[in-house]
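FAQ: What does the model actually see?

It sees only this:
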Amino acid sequence: MNALVGSRQVKASWTYVDGLPGLNGQVDSWLLGILDAAAPAGGRYRPAMALNAVQRSGSAITLSAEPVQANGTVIAVRERVKDTGPNGTGAVSSATVFADTVSGEVNDAAELVRPEAVAGIQARITGVPAAVAGPSPPAPALSDMLLDPAGELHVTAERPPTPGRSGEEVRTTIDAHDTKAMLTDFGRKVLGQLRADPVPPQATALARRHVNCDLVPCAALTYDDGPDVKTTPRLLSILKGKNAQATFFVTGSNAAASPATAHQVADAGHAVGNHTFSHPYLTKLSPAAVRNEMDRTDAAIRAATGWSPSFMRPP
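And it is asked to produce this:
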């Protein structure tokens, strides 16, 4: 994504993981928090800012959120920010979050190590022993840490910018023997999973994959009144050729008459919605009759596709 937020150019890339709504929501929250903070005072980021973005100054923010580990039931995602000012100098920071592909639980990197181990890790990064008194560099945040299957702990921290000099990332590795004494129960769980075969999250239908229209401009392509044994397969072929997804609001009578075609729509990864059974004017029906129209259509869609619709469009 390229966007112009206030006077700053923003370049962002991120990856969602199907079947992990907690992780995807965390990535969304992280991105929107940074984009809102970059917006003009009192404003908020809007997806329209990503349309026709043109560089107006040397200020830029580069964001990325990408998986960096996947073993056992653990997926680790690194979130990275590079903030560059007009003079070319800036700051860089990163954090890692861990998601469990079975429970969906999301944890921060700081939860890998015991609180009493933090000062020692920070001292390794700064080179200043934790017991030394007097002025010392600010303690770096331990937000980006990864374990490897051998038990070593890899820490990435930020060295703050100084006048005329950009901030930079500093990396250190703690050997397996020292790391073992630092780990929490969660850290030991992650280490155990890193030594196991990957367990992928549950598959997600294309039509139900995560997208956030607060981040990117969205348009919904929808079709009503099918399925039709002649025109629907032709439409599906066109959509496939354009790599496009759509929502088909079908009538229950057509879905019941052409269940194989309705199934073809869902099998191609498109969403199927309820458009009533017989396409009546709902304002002329009683509440019970409206409910009957919807229920019969839900049943026809479920019988044809195996899914119950999440959306309804009145005729």
